[in-house]
UniProtKB/TrEMBL annotation, chain A:
The keyword Magnesium does not apply. The lineage of its organism: Bacteria, Pseudomonadati, Pseudomonadota, Alphaproteobacteria, Rhodobacterales. This is tRNA uridine 5-carboxymethylaminomethyl modification enzyme MnmG. HAMAP family: MnmG_GidA (MF_00129). NAD-binding protein involved in the addition of a carboxymethylaminomethyl (cmnm) group at the wobble position (U34) of certain tRNAs, forming tRNA-cmnm(5)s(2)U34. GO terms for cellular component: cytosol. GO terms for biological process: tRNA methylation; tRNA wobble uridine modification.
TrEMBL record, chain B:
Residues 208-344 form the TrmE-type G domain. Binds 1 potassium ion per subunit. This is tRNA modification GTPase MnmE. The keyword NAD does not apply. It is an enzyme of class 3 (hydrolase). Keywords: Cytoplasm, GTP-binding, Hydrolase, Magnesium, Metal-binding, Nucleotide-binding, Potassium, tRNA processing. Belongs to the TRAFAC class TrmE-Era-EngA-EngB-Septin-like GTPase superfamily. TrmE GTPase family. Exhibits a very high intrinsic GTPase hydrolysis rate. Involved in the addition of a carboxymethylaminomethyl (cmnm) group at the wobble position (U34) of certain tRNAs, forming tRNA-cmnm(5)s(2)U34. Transmembrane segments: none annotated.
Length: 621, 419
């Protein structure tokens, strides 16, 4: 019997990141997946990042994770979403070559010290003295470990629908995995059912590209990883086309044949990723819907038509797709389908994604989320937490104030899910602070302290920060008069007071060219460093305000909250918050502050109670 | 849910009927043990060792009661002995005497009332005049919550428009949401401004209007005050400068709570104490809601000039035959009518917001909206979104929260998201 510290089950995005994170922590890790060549497969759209999601990728990268690195190895089209809006809401996104991405992930995992990739099928979990002690493989081998991270995706009751044709999408029907299903059922975790869909895949050689608009990537591509500066492979464009009234007619006429509308599906689907059936029904007044035609790879003719996922019968899909401009004679490689699956209620998870069964961690779709990035981020959390537990170290903690990862963990634990959970920037109350550009500032040091970030990564970050701080200090020290500002072509106020160039930098419409006139030394600084200084300056005043809101409380952030506190008995606390606090049981005021919906007033109440309890204890000596 | 509590809901002391209220998970079980027949609706005999009293027992089921919990009310005979005996029995049944305001707090916690409604309830209990009663009832029935809900809906809409352009930049959402956002902010600002203006008056209805009586020494101000109050509230004499400090009399003036201020006679004086009195008179009159100028002579000029809406009357009517006299009551009813009319005109503009707390919340929201409006054309969407969040947080103070799920609901129901 082989022994490991952590076993990760599943080689999807959650599994890959979990295994890599646990190994970086110094644990001996096994990643068990059915097929080595399926590790890191992008099962839906061939893209990584986007709004909220790009933020997650940067956070994973800031913690030395692998998703951003692999995405850059495979990046064939870079677009920084919201380029014309402020940096807080800009999301890096890349279209990735499926094969290159898979290969990059595999390579990164193979190179990771302390990580062993094992091909095999996990058929059961091993329980020892009330905690998980390993897994049994179909081969009859047993692997033992201090913790197991299960990233089973749509394993549970997965059912694929194409029209009224349905087949099992998970492995649960296989005799070999019945035991694992029964084992999970025996834990009696609360479950729900979700669904998601994917569009048909098209043969790019049969698309009439010449009559379609092309969408190229950005002129100045922004990489997914902090470690990279430019694309590694050839860059391509996507095509753009639209549905039309004829398309909608075909869909409408055949609605009853759709798995979803024919009543074959009970799961709840995501509202942000509606099928074409949904779009036609819910937005009947729209005469067209945009479709992005995304090539899946440099030497792959498969095209992913983003925007027309469907569970209509294959022949109906062909009819409506062929009604679309440029796709008149397109060949469908594989029809679109809807998949239904079970998830476990994430409200029962610990902040480190441990289940109620000690040593068993869940990450990814099994927790009700959707998306590669959400899965990978959870993988990182579960993998690093599991390793910390086995190694007897402090686990890396996340809060709503420091990361999108913290937002996601708190959302999942505090609210659970009602539709597949996806990250949006609007979920983050501290959005101006939680930016893709400063993910390293927020997390790298912290990750290093927890043992998750390697020395090389930290050194690169430190070098970057010294350059950033040097320029920032420099600009802060240079104070200019309104007259000097006007001479440099900058708008100046009338009050005649001196302003630091750092402050001037945050004004609207200020460009570096104008700053150079007042601080020539800035011109020779690395543009990436200049950008970083600018981003930080831009939101400084808002962040100060938010800090002030919290300032009175930060002094008490480490105040421990007694475990026996009865939140429901705290006068003035809303039932909603009391219920949340009661369930999540934050250990300190800092943890409480990170809970979604927590208000300063409520925190003060909790603080006051802690004080009272402390005094009472002191009085009783 | 907490433990089961009870309290005497009616006033203490001897009365025809006394009402006990019992609330909590054990309410029905506990009172059931006390009644001769456990069906808790009707006339029952309360038995605890011996028969304590006959009581009318009313049961309110969970979700339909004042607190939202199981509630039983006992109407017993209002004697001190009965109250003591029933209290003792309830205690022995393991129930806990309620703390002050605990029933209301439970109603709040169980979502039966929002915070503003609780305030309305407190005002309703305290209401002394008709206008106060009407206003408090309006607040208690949820008028503030309804108003705030309307604003919330608009705020969510505006925020959703902005957020849609941020989070779904790549999708088929309208590119320029500015006109609708501006329109929403503009209408919110107008409504908030109007409500803020109205809240000042509403607060007055709640706390009482201040009406200052001004005039030269010996013009008969104190006599008039006493006539208006119907009692000897102020010392009167024919010595000029009898009143030195400001004397306040609280009264119900045709349904409005009014505090009448009798002030020192206005004149230049060398007497240091009197001078302080005069300064005080001017200061209080300045802040008062309405001033009544009692002239000793027609056309007399005083140290303070009447403002628009103020009332000017000629005094010493008993000597002059015309004008007003506190001594004989001549013209006093007419003056009351004038004061009432002047105040009622203002009350007509009263908003539903009755407290300074409400006004501060609205002012904070208004401030954030003004910043947002100025920014819409020049700054990034993420900053406008931040301002709208601030406005939302300010309105949170009035009712529930602007929740991100509400935002996403609005976005998904309005736009076709999902390429």
């Amino acid at each position: 019997m082989k022994h490991f510290d952590v076993i990760v089950v599943g080689g999807g995005h959650a599994g890959a990141e979990a295994a890599a994170a646990a190994a970086r922590m110094g644990a001996r890790v096994a990643l068990v997946s059915m097929r080595r060549d399926r590790i890191g497969v992008m099962s839906c759209n061939p893209a990584i990042g986007g709004l909220g999601k790009g933020h997650l990728v940067r956070e994973i990268d800031a913690l030395d994770g692998i998703m951003g690195l692999a995405a850059d190895e495979a990046g064939i089209q870079y677009r920084l979403l919201n380029r014309r809006k402020g940096p807080a809401v800009q999301g890096p996104r890349v279209q990735a070559d499926r094969k290159l991405y898979r290969e990059a992930i595999l390579r990164l995992l193979e190179q990771q010290q302390g990580l062993e990739l094992i091909e095999g099928e996990v058929v059961d979990l091993v329980e020892e003295a009330g905690r998980i002690g390993g897994v049994d493989l179909a081969s009859g081998d047993r692997l033992s470990a201090g913790a197991v991270v299960l990233t089973a995706g749509t394993f549970l009751n997965g059912v694929i629908h194409i029209g009224d044709v349905r087949r099992s999408g998970g492995r649960e029907g296989d005799t070999a995995s019945i035991r694992l299903g029964e084992r999970l059922r025996s834990y009696d975790f609360a479950r729900g059912r979700l669904k998601t869909g994917t569009p048909a895949r098209l043969d790019g050689r049969t698309i009439n590209w010449s009559i379609l608009d092309a969408q190229p990537g950005d002129d100045a591509p922004v990489m997914m990883s902090f470690a990279n500066r430019s694309p590694k492979v050839r860059q391509i464009s996507c095509g753009i086309t639209h549905t039309n009234e004829r398309t909608h007619d075909i869909v409408r006429r055949n609605l009853s044949l759709s798995a979803m509308y024919g009543g074959h599906i009970e799961g709840v689907g995501p509202r942000y990723c509606p099928s074409i059936e949904d779009k036609v029904v819910r937005f009947a007044d729209k005469s067209e819907h945009q479709i992005f035609l995304e090539p899946e790879g440099l030497d792959d003719d498969t095209v992913y038509p983003n925007g027309i996922s469907s569970s209509l019968p294959a022949e109906v899909q062909e009819a409506y797709i062929r009604s679309i401009r440029g796709l008149e004679v397109v060949r469908i490689i594989q029809p679109g389908y809807a998949i239904e699956y079970d998830y476990f209620d994430p409200q029962a998870l610990s902040p480190g994604l441990e289940t109620a069964v000690p040593g068993l961690y869940f990450a990814g779709q099994i927790n009700g989320t959707t998306g590669y990035e959400e899965a990978a981020a959870q993988g990182l959390v579960a993998g690093s937490s599991a390793a910390a537990q086995v190694l007897g170290r402090e686990r890396l903690r996340f809060t709503r104030r420091d990361s999108y990862i913290g937002v996601m963990l708190d959302d999942l634990r505090a609210r659970g899910v009602t539709e597949p959970y996806r990250m949006f920037t609007s979920r983050a109350e501290f959005r101006l602070h939680l930016r893709a550009d400063n993910a390293d500032q927020r997390l790298t040091e912290k990750g290093f302290a927890a043992g998750l970030v390697k020395e090389s990564r930290r050194a690169a970050f430190s070098a970057k920060m010294s350059a950033v701080n040097a320029l920032r200090l420099n600009l802060e020290e240079i104070k200019v008069l309104p007259a000097e500002m006007r001479a440099a072509g900058l708008a100046a106020g009338k009050d005649g007071s001196r302003r630091s160039l750092l402050e001037v930098l945050s004004y609207p419409d200020v460009t570096w060219d104008k700053i150079y006139a007042l601080a020539p030394q800035a011109e020779s600084v690395d543009p990436a460093i200049r950008d970083q200084v600018w981003c930080d300056a831009l939101y400084a005043q808002y962040l100060d305000r938010q800090e002030n809101d919290a300032a009175g409380l930060t002094r008490h952030a480490d105040t421990p909250i007694p475990g026996e506190i009865d939140y429901r008995a705290l006068p003035g606390l809303s039932t909603e918050l009391a219920t949340k606090l009661d369930r999540l049981r934050p250990a300190s005021l800092r943890d409480a502050e990170g809970i979604e919906g927590m208000t300063p007033a409520a925190l003060i109440l909790v603080l006051a109670h802690c004080r009272k309890a402390e005094k009472a204890r002191a009085a009783h000596g | 849910m907490g433990d089961t509590i009870f309290a005497l809901a009616s006033a203490r002391g001897k009365a025809g009927v006394a009402v006990f209220r019992v609330s909590g998970p054990m309410a029905v079980a506990a009172v059931g043990q006390l009644c001769d027949v456990p069906m808790l609706r009707g006339l029952r005999r309360l038995v605890w060792g011996e028969v304590l009293d006959e009581a009318l027992v009313l049961r309110f089921s969970e979700g339909a009661s004042f607190t939202g919990e199981e509630v039983v009310e006992l109407q017993v005979h209002g004697s001190v002995a009965v109250i003591r005996a029933v209290s003792g029995a309830l205690l022995e049944l393991g129930l806990r005497p309620a703390e002050a305001g605990e029933f209301t707090r439970r109603a709040l916690e169980n979502g039966r009332l929002d915070l503003a409604q609780v305030e309305g309830l407190a005002d309703l209990v305290e209401a002394e005049t008709e206008a106060q009663r009407r206003q408090a009832l309006r607040v208690f029935s949820g008028a503030i919550g309804m108003r705030a809900e309307g604003w919330r809906a608009k705020l969510i809409r505006a925020a959703a428009l902005i957020e849609a352009t941020i989070d779904f930049a790549d999708e088929d959402v309208p590119v320029d949401v500015t006109p609708e956002v501006l329109e929403l902010i503009e209408s919110l600002r107008e409504e908030l401004s109007a409500e803020i203006a109205g809240s000042v008056v509403a607060e007055r209805v709640r706390d009482g209007f201040e009406v200052a009586i001004l005039g030269a020494p010996n013009a008969g101000k104190s006599t008039l005050l006493n006539a208006l109050a119907g009692r000897e509230a102020a010392i009167t004499s024919d010595v000029a400068g009898t009143t030195r400090d400001v004397i306040e009399v609280r009264m119900d003036l045709g349904g409005l709570a009014v505090t009448l201020l009798d002030t020192a006679g206005l004149r230049e004086t060398m007497d240091r104490v009197e001078a302080i009195g005069v300064a005080r008179a001017l200061e209080r009159a300045d802040r008062a809601d309405l001033r009544v100028f009692l002239l000793a002579e027609p056309g007399e000029a005083l140290m303070m000039a009447p403002r628009a809406g103020d009332i000017v009357v000629l005094g010493k009517g008993d000597l002059r035959g015309e004008g007003i006299s506190g001594l004989t009551g001549q013209g006093v009813d007419d003056l009351i009518g004038q004061i009432r009319a002047a105040l009622e005109e203002r009350v007509a503009a009263a908003g539903v917001m009755t407290r300074a707390r409400h006004r501060h919340a609205m002012e904070a929201a208004l401030g954030a909206l003004e910043i947002a409006e100025n920014r819409v054309r020049v700054a990034g969407a993420e900053l406008i979104a931040e301002d709208l969040r601030q406005a939302g947080r300010a309105l949170d103070v009035l009712v529930g929260r602007v929740d991100v799920e509400n935002l996403l609901d609005e976005i998904f129901s309005s736009f076709c998201i999902g390429k």
